[in-house]
Amino acid sequence: MKTLLYKELRLTAHPTSVVFAFLGCLVLVPAYPYSVIFLFGCLAPYITLVNARETNDLWYTATLPMTKRESVLSKCLLTATFQLFQLAFSVPFACLRAVLAVPNNPVGLDATAAWYGFGLMLYAVFDLVFLSSYFKSGYRVGRAFLLASVPMALGMAAVETAGHLPALAWLDSVRPADLGRQVPILLAGLFLYAALLALTYRICARRYETVDL
Description:
It contains eight helices and no strands. With 213 residues, it is mainly alpha-helical. The chain has helices at residues 2-12, 15-21, 35-54, 57-62, 68-99, 113-134, 141-162, 176-208. The chain is elongated, with a radius of gyration of 18 Å. InterPro entries: ABC2_memb-like. It comes from Candidatus Avoscillospira avicola. Keywords: Membrane, Transmembrane, Transmembrane helix. This is ABC-2 transporter permease. The chain crosses the membrane at residues 113-132, 144-165, 185-204.
């Protein structure tokens, strides 16, 4: 796995994608729709796969001592690396936000434990639709991104709306009692992300094996 990921990071990952991965720091911005950060985490693999298409990465990979399943696994690992790094990178800034006592975000949900859980769920659904569509052909990246953008946009709207509903005000709180209620959402997000990533890999590997390069 280390070798597969190393190849993707050195030869496939577009520099702009790396920049997007560092945008988790935007949780420190006082008034900003934080769900947009998740969109950046999805733009990173999209731009990378566009770059891979233009540089004939799949053809090059086919000449290496790698199976098609390993090629799919490398792309799944790269996508997960972008997204998980982005969320992990944002944690110190979310903590700093609390230390600086930045006012609650008037736009939508703050960077709470629930927000991270919802983010993982959004990533999981996006990856399932995006990668499984992409590996039907190995080159229709734009179509795959448009298909995956629909559930992504709906999910982002739901996350931002949740912060404005009085009955769900605890989702937008950093009080210890409310954080305790948010932990199950975070755990559910982690479980769903891992489960759907494994499912995504299986679907993509099966589809890509039938693709004639």
